[in-house]
Amino acid sequence: MLRAKTRGGLLALAALFCSPSLGARDATAPIASYEISCRLDPESETVTGSQLLTWTNPTGRPATTLRFHLYLNAFRNTRSTFWREQSPRRDRRPIPESWGSIELTSLLLSSDGTDLLPAMHFLAPDDGNPDDRTVAQVDLPRPVGPGQTIVLRMEFVSRLPRVSSRTGYKGDFFLVAQWFPKIGVFEEAGWNCHQFHANSEFFADFGDYDVTIEAPARYAGKIGATGVRVSQRQTSDGRVFARFRQGSVHDFAWTADPDFRVLRDIFREPGIGDVEILLLIQPEHLGQAARYFKAVKAGLEGYGRVLGPYPYATLTVVDPPWGARGAGGMEYPTFITAGTSLIAPASIQSPEGVTVHEFGHQYFYGLLASNEFEEPWLDEGFNTYMTDRVLKSVYGDDRCYVSVFGVRFPLGIDIRRPLDDNRRYFAHATEDPLGIPSWKYRDRDSYGALVYSKTALALATIERLVGTPAMDRALRLYADRWRFRHPKTRDFIAALSEVTGRDQQWLFDRTFFSSGTVDYAVIEASSVPARPPRGLFEKEGKLSEGAPPALARAKGYDTRVTVVRNGDVALPVEVLLRFEGGKSYRSSWDGEARWKTFRAERGPRLIEAVVDPDEKILLDTNRTNNGRRPEGDPRAASRWTARAVFWLQNLFDGATVAW
Amino acid sequence: MKRPTALSCFGRGLRQALSKPYLALSLWLIQLLLAAALILPVSNSLHANLDHSPLSDRMIGVPDYGWWETFRRTHPDILGTFGEAAEQLLSTEGIATASIDGLRGIGATAFSLALLAIFLHAFALGGVLGTLREPSSSLVTFGREGMRRLPAFLAFTLAAFVGAAASYRWIYVESGRALRGRVEDLATEGQALAVTALRLAALLVALAAIKLLVDSVRAIWVARPDLPPVSRFLMGIGGALARPRRLLGVLFWYALSTAGLYAIWIVLDPPAGGEARFALVPLILAQQVFVFVRSLIKVGYYAGISEALTRTPSPEYSYVPPAAQAGASGKVEAVDDGALERPTGGV
């Protein structure tokens, strides 16, 4: 149930959101609420809008200025910070040179009509780029005191680019995101309002949204958006008006495509809630609708069981059309975009993977609204970790595939979760530490490998070290405590420490906030027949050569195993020695020293020695050296050599087939 | 007189290949020797990394994704960017020549050996086509005929190689670049796949045309040693242009039978055999029998092309004198004319 503030200009909005179905369960008071009317002109790819912004100062200090995100200006020209940060690598698909912008045409103080537009200027708080127009500041005639509310009337024109990075158009398809002037987050330290970067996403305060979208009549029933559609009417002049409302969210995105097929399903699960799932799917993907629904339901249940119920009444899933790849795989409150291919074998879990992941952002981003600019791992990394858990429990392991001229063929090779599908981390392990803002990573590969994959592997490692029940309790505590708020990494560490009864900061220092690597290896494993001791021994008080009879009858094997730490980072590990006869010996090692030797005298023969036998340390960059057997077994290598020769013979034959 | 069909030409070619199995054996041996150059580095690396590893158990049957990813990452000198190059080759955009820069280790060596394979291919084809026309022949004939025709066949092979590479570049890769924006603008992915299929089909037609032209020139080059080189060359081109359907048919049956062989291989899946040590022996035997059978089909194809070009009717392109045509009603030997086969001078 939404607890709406009953102060000043909020009264009208509060009345709009009094219905529980439109608000969110357990929501907090709104800080930034928007009432928007906009008109889509598909021919000129523009959205013209007016909005009433109601903002409440949530801090204990007065606000003398206001800052706004004007995200679409990232697409204004190649001088923007977003454009400058694009990778120059040749193997990257370039962003289409299709320009977008957002222009504020009017900015009035609602109370007295003061025109604030002349006082607006652009800032570049992150990089000082004078050509970047994604952040604007307005000097206020009067400060907004702590807890006070200000209402602004704004008019704007948003020109959409050809869809590339989470927003834009392709033909008649529109994904309209980051499209309206959006106020930053005011904190005790001042405004937190970053520029739009190539790698970063968003950060905003919660509020209530009431948005009316006007579009040509061919879009009737084919508009999807954040929240619940509360009305739709068509006019005689060929226009359609669709109105959406949602309380307790921090962004609003919408989509429109006359080709959409609109499908509905209901998720009902005691203890988790009832949610209406709306799927806007392309006609050529209709055959995969059931897979989409199953994936969403898997997410609702999997995330809901660990992190608490999904609090909204609806979820809209968008399947973008061909040629709009940049619109896929994105999350907005109660609204996600996924994406699939015409030929998508079930074994390779697409669109399931992206659907579950984007749904997961309803928690890690949506409800736990961390700062995606400054701590991107809190949404992308935590969500990747949870995505792996949900996918593994519902679908099992993924499968490799080979793409042949655009058609994907599954191979019979498992991709084990979460280790194998996060292997990109290992190739970039030392490039950056994790704890830096999103735009300071070396490049997109490093950002993806560390923010998504390293975080997922680090969390999975922590889960294995503290145990799944403790991890689940920590996640639930973190989620309950920070729902509808802005948590930071320290808040999760505090939750985990609280649950485990031990300060876990050290674990995060070594896994999250270090660019060092973890690599343990068994470099020696020998087991040789024991020999009787030789030399001088005391017999009847005299020294004489030859071992006493008790020692001379040597039995069994002398075993020696040496484990080394190749990586910079030390984590506690276990070492398992397996012997003939079913005996085994398991030892814990704090992993601090560079090496440790294990010896066993006159015991059974060693079969193998394995460091980290339960695969707890998923951050280990090289697991192929984690075990060693005294006796070599050439079968695997011989078979792969034979296969390699066979493949080469075929390659050489293929190399000559066309000429 | 009934015209021989492509299938009958291919069938006769296969019979010739079976009657002279040492030709397929020679091709098999050449490929094996080429591959053997890489056996030691591959084998040593695999044994060093797998033999004492507990992971080797699960590597016997199916590949372990994690093991291979780690192996590739920690030994970039061995595989280099071979995987990425193969991936690009099969992509809708195609592979850029710049990708060759990144090849290292086995990938780079395999590339060099593939170039050597082209050279040996020219030699082998001279040997195969020359030997097929000898009534009594042996491996010695194969070597002699191969060396005798090497300069000309090398020129044909290189010309065809350049033609094929240019076709790939200018038909597939460049069309992909030129159409990229328009393909993205298409309404559905199905349409985009159709465009890729059309680009591929155009490439395949170009490659087939190049192959048939050069194979026709080769066949006539061997069949008409009595003519001057320029005439033989032009006659080869003319032969391909005069009988495109029959030649294309032979190529079709060759492609189909090779694809069938690969299908059988995939269905039977010999690499999935048992894990016992001795299971390696049947695996190697099965693999080499496969390569040998594929070489037999290849020899059959070249013999079929020769059949399609030189059998009656179409005396204007046939080397067979009219008197011999009457007896050429099915026996392969009947179309051979030793007197015309012997070269009158250097090729």
Explain briefly what this protein structure is.
Chain A is α+β, with helices and mostly antiparallel strands.
Please work out how many helical segments of chain B DSSP would assign: 16
Radius of gyration of chain A: 30 Å
Main beta sheet strand tally, sense and closure of chain B: none
State the helical fraction of chain A: 10-25%
Distance between the termini of chain B: 34 Å
Major β-sheet profile of chain A = 7 strands, mixed
Strand content of chain A: 25-35%
Structure description:
Chain A is an alpha+beta fold and 659 residues long. Chain A is 22% helix and 32% strand. Chain A contains 13 helices and 33 strands. In chain B, 37% of the residues are buried. Chains A and B meet through strand 23, strand 24, strand 33 and helix 13 of A and helix 2, helix 3, helix 4, helix 5 and helix 8 of B.
Layout: helices, strands, pairs:
The complex is a heterodimer of chains A (659) and B (347).
Chain A: H1 10-16, E1 32-41, E2 46-56, E3 63-69, H2 81-84, E4 101-109, E5 120-123, E6 135-144, E7 149-159, E8 168-170, E9 173-176, E10 182-183, E11 185-187, E12 190-192, E13 207-216, E14 223-225, E15 228-234, E16 239-249, E17 254-256, E18 261-269, E19 273-281, H3 289-307, E20 314-318, E21 330-332, E22 335-337, H4 352-360, H5 362-367, H6 380-395, E23 398-404, E24 407-415, H7 424-427, H8 444-466, H9 468-482, H10 489-500, H11 505-511, E25 520-529, E26 536-539, E27 542-545, H12 549-552, E28 557-565, E29 573-579, E30 584-589, E31 595-603, E32 606-611, E33 627-628, H13 635-654
Parallel strand pairs in A: 1-13, 19-20, 20-22
Antiparallel strand pairs in A: 1-2, 2-7, 3-6, 3-10, 4-7, 5-6, 8-9, 9-17, 11-12, 13-16, 14-17, 15-16, 18-19, 21-22, 23-24, 25-28, 26-27, 28-31, 29-30, 29-32, 32-33
Chain B: H1 6-19, H2 21-36, H3 39-50, H4 56-59, H5 65-74, H6 76-79, H7 82-89, H8 105-132, H9 139-148, H10 150-185, H11 189-223, H12 229-242, H13 244-268, H14 280-310, H15 322-325, H16 338-341
Helix pairs in contact in B: 1-13, 1-14, 2-8, 2-14, 8-9, 8-10, 8-11, 8-14, 10-11, 11-12, 11-14, 13-14
